[in-house]
């Protein structure tokens, strides 16, 4: 009986590990300069199905060497986890949360309700209404609890990361320099376009 209990405990631990590994293995690596630091930015999404879009936020943060973490937390399927994550975000050293959700997208608002650090919302493109539902649910926060809302889908994911970087750069001159360089490179690319 005791051996049976031990085996089922082991299985539970392994399946938890597996769950963590399955989202971890899809993640592009955190850049070397940020790998050892505790995360400044959290990229939270309501479902694993949001990851294909939100990996663009992750890639942008990695490109700038920003220590970050990516997690699936659902406002309605894991409400106590959402509340715990929001409530402890600041004390764990997070400075910004990026929250992505689709449909009746209340994740960003729920996280923002539990913290005073900036929350940036990214509305996911939805099957039923093409993301208009997600956009309105994320952007239309009643006065008192702000959510800075970006565009629907991939552009919003990238811009949420760039906005987070711009906020962090206010007090970090080396990061500000990187952001200027990024803008310069982007400008050069457009200026160099020749149409036949
Ligand atoms: C939201 O519902 C998620 O953020 C996702 O965008 C949407 C669909 O979720 P799944 O049914 O794919 O898990 O909670």
Short description:
The protein has helices at 2-26, 32-35, 51-63, 79-88, 107-113, 132-139, 154-169, 173-191; strands at residues 41-45, 68-72, 96-101, 119-123, 148-149.
Rg, Å, rounded: 19 Å
Count the helices. How many? 8
Secondary structure: helix percent: 40-55%
Sheet with the most strands: spatial strand order: 2-1-3-4-5
Topology as H/E string?
HHEHEHEHEHEHH
Mean pLDDT: 88
What would you say this structure looks like, in words?
- There is one protein chain.
- The protein is of the alpha/beta class.
- It has one domain (27-191): 3-Layer(aba) Sandwich (Rossmann fold), CATH 3.40.50.
- 52% of the residues lie in helices and 12% in strands.
- The protein is built from eight helices and five strands; from the N terminus they run ααβαβαβαβαβαα.
- It has helices at residues 2-26, 32-35, 51-63, 79-88, 107-113, 132-139, 154-169, 173-191, and strands spanning 41-45, 68-72, 96-101, 119-123, 148-149.
- The protein has a five-stranded parallel beta sheet with strand order 2-1-3-4-5, sandwiched between helices.
- The longest helix is centred in the N-terminal third of the chain and has 25 residues, at 2-26.
- It is globular.
- Mean pLDDT is 88; it is low at 10-33.
- The structure holds 5-O-phosphono-beta-D-ribofuranose.
- The site of 5-O-phosphono-beta-D-ribofuranose has 10 residues, from loops.
- Residues 45-47, 49-50, 74, 101-103, 124 line the site of 5-O-phosphono-beta-D-ribofuranose (RP5).
